[in-house]
Q: What sequence folds into this?
């Protein structure tokens, strides 16, 4: 099938999918690249927009999902997202890049930095799993590994933004496990991220918190 309408309607009830949809639904002739197919939820959404707006989608995954859809607007390649020499020959300038493959902050940074040059000016890069809120101990699906990984991804994106405020905009949506959106403002290469020197973690401030007398009620 070209795309699954029933599945689309159901998936649009998910805040995360709805956020992506709102950001791409009006793009004319969108050129989209996505990393990570598995259940095909995002692939289905992208294909529906490509059908409506005369676009094209390339999907990449290490597992073979090439038979999920039969659509002339779709190309699937079974390969790693960092198979740069292979993938660069398959793509031109892009309007949307969706990163939902290997969720490790340094890997995401590597993918983001390599493919940024293929993004058109005003193009967007969407990064999945940036919210740790569903995973904290008192939340609805506690999981310390996901909590820490997603928080590290969120922090990494802030560090990238901090050094590239003139080149990109950064927005977050916290629906489900969260999505980050990077918008390219300028045709320039990204500068390397730098750790944020947060004062919260200063010894002086930690001591202050411990020893500061509480006001008498
Ligand atoms: C969370 S799933 C993607 C879900 C999909 N976007 C959706 O909406 O249904 C992650 C996918 O990334 C793939 N993957 C993991 N590491 C990868 C890598 N380094 N390169 C390419 N694909 C990878 C996995 O095989 C898996 O299918």
A:
């Amino acid at each position: 099938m070209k795309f699954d309408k029933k599945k689309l309607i159901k998936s649009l009830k998910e805040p995360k999918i709805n956020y992506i949809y709102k950001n791409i639904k009006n793009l004319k002739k969108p050129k989209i690249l996505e990393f990570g197919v598995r259940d095909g939820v995002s692939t289905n959404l992208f294909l529906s927009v490509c059908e409506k707006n005369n676009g094209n989608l390339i999907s990449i995954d290490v597992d073979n999902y090439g038979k999920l859809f039969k659509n002339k607007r779709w190309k699937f390649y079974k390969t790693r997202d960092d198979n740069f020499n292979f993938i660069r020959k398959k793509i031109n300038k892009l309007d949307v890049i969706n990163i939902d493959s290997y969720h490790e902050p340094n890997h995401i940074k590597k993918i983001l930095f390599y493919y940024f040059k293929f993004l058109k000016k005003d193009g967007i890069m969407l990064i999945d799993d940036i919210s740790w809120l569903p995973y904290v101990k008192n939340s609805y699906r506690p999981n310390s590994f996901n909590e820490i990984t997603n928080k590290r991804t969120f922090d990494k994106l802030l560090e990238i933004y901090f050094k590239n405020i003139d080149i990109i905009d950064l927005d977050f949506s916290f629906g489900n496990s969260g999505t980050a959106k990077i918008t390219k403002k300028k045709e320039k290469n990204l500068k390397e991220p730098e750790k944020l020197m947060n004062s919260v973690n200063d010894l002086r401030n930690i001591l202050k918190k411990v020893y500061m007398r509480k006001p008498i009620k």
User: Anything to note?
Assistant: The chain has a mean pLDDT of 96.
